[in-house]
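Dear colleagues,

For the upcoming journal club I promised to circulate an example of a predicted protein-ligand complex. I picked one with nicotinamide-adenine-dinucleotide because it came up in last month's discussion. The inputs are reproduced below in full, followed by the predicted structure.
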Amino acid sequence: MSPSKTINIDFTTFHNIIDGKQRDAKTYTNGVDPTTGEKSWDVPVATEQDLNDAVRSAQKAFESWSQVPVEERKDKLRAFVDLYTEYKEDFTNLLIKESGKPRAFAQREAEGSAAGVIGHHVNLNIPEERYEDDERVAITRYTPLGVVGAICPWNFPITLSIGKMAPALLTGCTIIIKPSPFTPYTALKIAELAQNVFPPGVVQAVGGDDKLGPMMTVHPGISKISFTGSIATGKKVMEACAKTLKRVTLEMGGNDAAIVLPDVDIEKTAPQVAMGAFMNSGQVCVATKRIYVHESIYEPFLQAITKAAGTFKVGLSDDPGVMLGPIQNKMQYERVKGFFTDSKKNGYKFATGKDEVEEMNGGFFVQPTIIDNPPNESRIITEEPFGPIVPLQPWSDEAEVIRRANNTNAGLAASVWGKDVARAEKIAKQLDAGSIFVNSFSKLTPKVFFGGHKESGIGGEWGNLGLLAYCNAQCIHTFK
Ligand code: NAD
């Protein structure tokens, strides 16, 4: 163990974390290294009994944790950041192993999540409102909901676990994290590490198979589900949560449009738009998934973005200059390949050249790909590929392109690009999505609320408003 580390943590064995203890199981599953397709470490599959025990422990812990003064809860969160920071390289390496992300991006996630997300939340205060008239004083206060079940996807396993843990713990809730079965490793280790800071039952993690999420959503002891994942699963989560009237926050998929105005600096803007579409190999809920370019600059913009996409090197995490890693799992890899097959079958033009995915290293790698002006009803326009393949279409009429951008069941994010900022902002305000970026691709921050419109979500998290998603409002009316 390095002298800079307080405790010995083994980053190669994984346990469910229940009631302050490491718990193993009768059955095991495993993730897969997406750069090779080879099996990764074993992880225990949590049973219904494990979940029941975790919920009981979380309920018991809630009784005292919710009564701890908020400033002391913040101190505990700060202590967790300090402890986590000692292991930031271990978390980076673990994240690389489970996701295949290029080192610089994995580092940003592993290092930035605790310091950035928790670091921001400890500066927030839980609001209180006061109303007074001749007969009464009424105080509206916000009380913690109880036990939170955090159901996470596989694309940002550290950020999204910590992104739910920070507001839950700050407001006085306790949390049971359920990572995606594709990326169980970092979340289980976060919870293991957290046992050195928080009382038993405050932070727990259970990993397992496809049965666990549904079990959580119907569990009567869980007060809230914070879900991040696909729209299809989110609908099932909401339906299941209705049985116990659990509170839900649903953060789901997007089909984000980028609208490029005729006055942009093409050479400067095209690489930025490409970055917005291809970062994390397109496996970002707020990645640009449809690009609309004004017809007067369509051809030069297409050339510039195609050139930019060609410079994004795809490869192993530690390859020099690598920008994009693999698709995280085989199921998603096959789904992304389906967009290539569909586009090829329908005769769409592949601006980037290759019209199929070439095998590389046994892993799930896909080269960044641009489809030149497919029809509005094509799959690549109407569905979220969640991979590095994106369509580009021309537009001429502003009202018409706004309609086209809004013509989707999703409403997560969008971007507008133009030198005329007033015009770009005017367009931004007409887009039906939760986060709009003017002259930037999606750059989320925990300091600002994030949530989707339409089928991209219910409620949201982060920022001052996000804190309230973990609370009930309670009004105390005291009569004079
Ligand atoms: P997914 O919906 O397949 O799975 C998400 C989580 O739900 C996993 O932990 C999974 O085990 C669990 N789950 C599956 N079925 C369940 C059920 N019936 N009940 C309860 N839980 C269940 O999503 P994914 O493939 O892991 O992630 C990709 C999707 O997530 C994309 O659509 C992406 O846009 C979206 N996403 C959204 C955000 C956001 O903040 N809006 C962020 C990241 C990813």
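Two points we might discuss: The mean pLDDT is 97. The chain has two domains: 16-252+456-479, 256-445.

See you all on Thursday,
B. R.
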